[in-house]
Amino acid sequence: MSLEERELEVLIGPQHPASGHMRMIAKIDGDIVVELRPNIGYVHRSVEKLAEAKKFLQIIPLVERPSLADTTANNLAYVMALEKLLGLEAPPRAQYLRTLLAEINRIHSHLYGLGIHGVMIGSSTAYMWCFGDREPFIELAQELTGARLSYSYIIPGGVRRELPSRFTEKVEKALRYMENRMKDYFNLYLNNPVTRARLEGVGVLSKEDAIRLGVAGPNLRASGVPYDVRKVEPYAAYPDIDFDIITEKVGDAFARVMVRVKEIQESIRIIRQVLKKMPEGPILHEKYIKAISPKMREYMKETGEVKFPGIFANLRIPAGEAISRVEGGRGEVIFHIISDGKMSPYRMRMVTPSFRNVILFEHLNRGVRVADIPAIYGSLDYFPPEADR
Amino acid sequence: MNFEELKSRIEEGLRELSAEISGKEPNVININVSRDKIVEVAKKLKALGFDHVKAVTAIDYPNERFEVVYIASSYSNLDLAFFLINLRTDLPYNDPTTPSLIEVWPSAFYQEHEEHDLMGIVFEGHPRMGERLLLPESYEGLPPLRKEFKIKTEGINA
Amino acid sequence: MQDLLSFLISLLFRPCIFIPLIFPGLTVIFIMLLMIIWLERKIAAKVQLRYGPLYVFKPLGGVIQTVADLLKDLFQEPIIPKTVDKIAFLLTPIMLFGLAYLPTVVIPVSPTFYAFRSDLSLLLLLTLTTLAPIFTVLMGWASNNKFSLIGGLREGYLVISYEIPMFLSALSMAVLYGSLDLVDIAEAQKGIWGLFLNPVAGISMLVLIYMSTGKFPFEIPEAESEIVAGAYTEYSGIMYGLVMGASYVKLYVLSLVYAILFLGGWNPLPASMMDNPLLPGAMLFAKAFILIAIGVFLRAVYPRFRIDQAMNIGWKMALPFSILAIFISLGIVTITGGM
Prior knowledge:
Chain A is mainly alpha-helical. Helices cover 48% and strands 12% of the residues of chain A.
């Protein structure tokens, strides 16, 4: 670099403590970022291509993998697309169980995002607290599904397991713990003057820009757009549930954090309603229950675990096209499946919220200070594997 | 606004643009259009309130055609947010180029880039054509999402 | 034999040897470093609902974890990248640590026990503490790494914004006591401590000490999530140990100064206990240690400021306050006619 050059090109990542699996190419003039280009693709695993070579049921764990902290959304969106093509709907109890898992997942996904953001602006306490407090919810999900993160709980026509015994009390205990912890979060982190100074007015995304750039999820709602798939195109048990769409007006990094914090509180409300209203009944579509041998049906009744009917092994999906969308923790997940009646999809398009938010890196990082890059990055709750798929 | 109302409104708006419009209940409206009309159609749709693109899907029908689907919807008008407009265009197999819609819908920027990277569709007017997005810079060969590109499978389902 | 031993002990207790080598010099610095890094991790762990270091000597809560880390650092391969300016790269950590340690020789341990006494000892001490940041800036340049460069520049910007108000705050105490001699200043606080006479100077100096040693929320020159490790990015092994230790040593020195200027130094020990340097020394050390502990505790409470916000604090808040502190001192001197 010669002395006459004013701009310095800094490569942030992929081996950088706060870059994640991506690279940001920043041009800086003094302490001001002139331009920032995200360079993604470091963890691309070609989910869309692999899906064309896998059977429909095998794709469920495949689509979950990329967004490890927020797997239920992908699982649910994919299965909803299949159900649209199959022309069947899961029984009501299965719909409630799906909602329950989706909201438990939303809480721990938001805590993950808040924690990473905390350590990016230097609060190791926020990071440790959030990651520690994810644990009760991961344990709950584990008890419900048998896995900590990649649940593969939702299958065409229903869910994989019945509600465990005394689950409601355990959930209530975890929810009350979280509500109490929320006060600590506000005292130490969210109302901390340094946190406020670092986040307020930083990375402001106006409502017009949020709409124009097609941003998804809490980042969109933080800019004052009350769009939430759970209200716009209600799925699972959401039509019966009473909840609010959380929005903030300002659109800065702090507003995005606050949307997540308030959505955790809203999820707590939803989970309580779900458990209260949970109807009795089967957890798998009767078409598939009939396909299971009587002996296995007996076993299912005893253990509450669904045994897959034989037709699942070579599930054929009728030819056609389906688009499904689900509001996950990080935002709207879209599945566009084109089937030609075979055992694998002809084309599967999977659009994750992180991929739709990549554009914000370029947009929000113009003219900010170098120290704002991680503050903005973290506030987007961007997850590189999810964007790369 | 219900489905039929919206469909007739779109038909009215696109009357002069020779677009084929078909609906799929409850919320999907397919608009087939030739690639030289696609920018105008997109502008009309934007004027109707469909302000962002949720997904861009490119589909490969080997030796026949490519199809590019823009799934557009609305954020600013929540009545329209329920509906998904599929703006589709067919491209000849030996010339997969189509005008880019990023001027109309900036939200398609990365999606178009990805389809260029993985499917080899050329979006004219997109500033990053020829650059890689998800694939490594050094990648050469067939775009991996094309049907000609076979992946090796192993195990019981191979 | 006996004679030799007692001779050696008496030699050890000569101020000009005791002060640089034992207290406040090398030996205590070394023990303090091992203790404070352990304590920092332990306090943060307590707040963050973790255990922290535990397994190295479990009965005492992993207290010698830092010794294990030091051993690891010692035997780690010191990697010197090809593109660095070798002389500057190797020399700066040593200079940094040496200069951080050097001011300890000026610090008196009791009214009668000091390596040397000067009318200008406060001034000398402050001057010595200002030398180290130059080497941090040099280090950022010598590493030939963009993150190091940014880190070095950040250090440079911070230095100019904290140094002036810090000096003014310290000198306002010199105005108050009418002396630049640290022994005189400590002795003048037999009654009321300086902190209570001039709290404005006390608070602004304390904040600036944490700022100058890169403690949270001012951990800006080495902000991990922004610029990897700032000027220290390219260092590994024992070289990294030195540069990291240097900032703790600086905190230790400045805390000792603070204890003498504002917390009465070795007071309130009665004069009869001043003969032996150990007791007043322990008193001084305890006060400084509390200040260090507060400094490392802040890590668990605050995120970090942005560089422009920290500079604003330096110029727009600390500077006016430190000027005000001088006027307060002048006022007290005028009213009481000198301490």
